[in-house]
Amino acid sequence: MENSESKLIDGYPYIAYHKQEIGEIEMIKKSGEFLRWMDERRTVRDFSDKPVPKQVIDHLILTASTAPSGAHKQPWTFCAVSDAVIKKQIREAAEKEEYESYNKRMPDEWLEALKPLGTDWHKPFLETAPWLIVAFKRNYEFGEDHKKINNYYVSESLGLACGFMLAAIHHAGLVTLTHTPSPMNFLSKVLQRPDNEKPFLLLPVGYPAEECFIPDIKRKALNEVAVYY
């Protein structure tokens, strides 16, 4: 039975949506506070091995899963790794690929662009951080009789979800690094993922090391990133 808070539209169930409206002054204040908070977020490569409760990781993954997705297919799987043996396997495989990239695959222009960031093929954080969260994109699902059912806007959807997760990690008082070893197929093998899942992003999650330095770099100003019409 329908009520004022729910109804069928074209045969599908809908529920009423309400969001408390706030005044312009409060809106400007809240958006400015969030900007300043997010502007404190930084990529970190020096991690502490201090443990992080599993419940926090649960919350991070569920927050990421609130992101919009193509046709609401939610085409993602987040693999959370704390096992030391598996983390070591991931580090060894990642460093093998990264060594090839830094020494053979990446052009000089790219290597020059990376110099101010202090990154190279060594990836100790993959073992030091208490958790690794590996985001996999689900290109399709399996229906009846093992028939493939396509998902839509998979990369875009997972990119949004990972953005939500970055904000959630920062909000939880933790740090991370967006790591994309190329190619990343070794992650599917190490974590024994099915054929319909492909690795998208690897996020080490934890506290910054007691001695932690980050590059002194600046973000672009509003007039460099926005055009108003």
UniProtKB/TrEMBL annotation:
Residues covered by the Nitroreductase domain: 40-207
Pfam family, one: Nitroreductase
Stored Gene3D superfamilies: NADH Oxidase
Key words of the record: Flavoprotein, FMN, Oxidoreductase
GO molecular function (one): oxidoreductase activity
Presence of keyword NADP: no
Protein name: Nitroreductase family protein
Lineage: Bacteria, Pseudomonadati, Bacteroidota, Sphingobacteriia, Sphingobacteriales
